[in-house]
Write a structure and sequence with these properties.
Length: 368
């Protein structure tokens, strides 16, 4: 199969769909790879590095989209990209369609087959292609929040770790899944006073055993959210419903109970966000203020660390890329029901139930 890797064009996105090591493995297994010139700049991979791995370098994204049988990206296609997709072509990338009806329509109109990293599942019920980026975003969240707490950035001026004789910042983490767990680990390591709110009983027990006395783990409820948000210096939103919009856990009224200069970090922003006042920001302008509360809502958080995040992403995606390329998408999905859960759009139809529900579109089950 001819695999295409365009340069990412989303604002401040420096990751790349395939790094040279992944390209080399694709070529070793008999596939051809087209890489847009400069696609690897953000991970310090030159065109010559890709050539040495066996790729053909082309000058433009147009050439990649026009020739490739499968496009492998990182972030959801932007409008100039979805306009170049076509029927019979496979797109394999993060999509996050639930809060993005315009992109969904663009993909449907293109006729392409779009498979989303974030809805591929595992035998244990996890999300193996979302997990590495959730880990990175989770670990970033307290760091970004701690920066936003600085007074000259509009924050209340509290050091996350405290110092001897001075209390640390109180950090509340909404959700104890992959991103919330990693956020809590880093916040605890930074010396914060940490509370995690989680709804799943099994997960609550796991978190309690893991953190012991270093963090409080509470069952989520409106009363618990009310109390924790009101006393928090930082609230990290880390909730996820695969394929669907993130639940809105914190209303503007609840936000108004927070201290002036407190910070919210919305890891769930690429699925619409879990704070009523959340809106997407970029690494260039990562924060904004609502009612005296600083919001950090960058939708591609791992893009800030492209070398680490591209390597972690490729470790997870490469086996699926090879399966799709070697077998063709129909056979690959027939052989792997977990990869089949990644199918979001095919020939103008929404093929994932949660995505269809979120978009108000008819759901078309995949033929067996």
């Amino acid at each position: 199969m001819l695999i295409g890797v365009p340069k990412e064009i989303k604002a401040q996105e420096n990751r790349v769909g395939l790094n040279p090591a992944s390209v080399a493995e694709c070529v070793h297994q008999g596939h051809k790879v087209l890489v847009q010139s400069g696609a690897g700049q953000g991970i310090l991979a030159s065109d010559d590095d890709y050539r040495a791995a066996g790729a053909e370098i082309v000058d433009s994204a147009n050439a990649v989209f026009a020739k490739a049988d499968m496009i492998v990206k990182v972030k959801e296609p932007q409008e100039p990209e979805w306009k170049q997709l076509r029927r019979g072509q496979v797109l394999f990338t993060y999509l996050h369609l639930a809060p993005d009806p315009k992109q969904a329509k663009g993909l449907m109109d293109s006729g392409c087959t779009a498979i989303a990293y974030e809805t591929v599942t595992s035998a244990k019920g996890g999300l193996p292609l979302l997990a590495p980026m959730s880990e990175i975003a989770g670990r970033m969240a307290p760091i970004m929040g701690a920066t936003a707490l600085q007074k000259h950035r509009g924050g209340l001026g509290r050091l996350i770790s405290g110092v001897p004789g001075v209390e640390p910042a109180h950090v509340t983490v909404l959700g104890g899944g992959v991103s919330g767990f990693n956020a809590a680990r880093i916040a605890v390591g930074m010396g914060a006073d940490v509370t995690i709110l989680e709804k799943n009983g099994e997960r609550i027990r796991f978190l309690d055993e893991f953190f012991g006395a270093s963090a409080r783990v509470l069952a989520v409820s409106k009363a618990a959210i009310d109390a924790e948000v009101a006393k928090a210096d930082m609230v990290i939103g880390a909730v996820l419903v695969p394929g669907a919009n993130a639940p809105r856990l914190v209303s503007r009224a609840q936000l108004n109970t927070m201290k002036q200069g407190a910070v919210v970090v919305d890891i769930a922003i690429d699925q619409g966000g879990c704070f009523e006042t959340s809106k997407i920001t970029t690494h260039q302008e990562p924060t904004y203020e609502v009612d005296g509360i600083i919001h950090y809502c960058v939708a591609n958080m791992p893009g800030a660390y492209p070398q680490s995040s591209t390597a972690a992403l490729n470790n997870a995606t490469l086996p699926f890329v090879l399966a799709l390329a070697s077998k063709g998408w129909k056979q690959a999905l027939a052989d792997d029901p977990h990869l089949a859960m990644g199918l979001n759009v095919h020939e103008g139809k929404i093929m994932h139930p949660a995505v269809a529900e979120a978009l108000g579109q008819p759901y078309m089950p995949r033929a067996a």
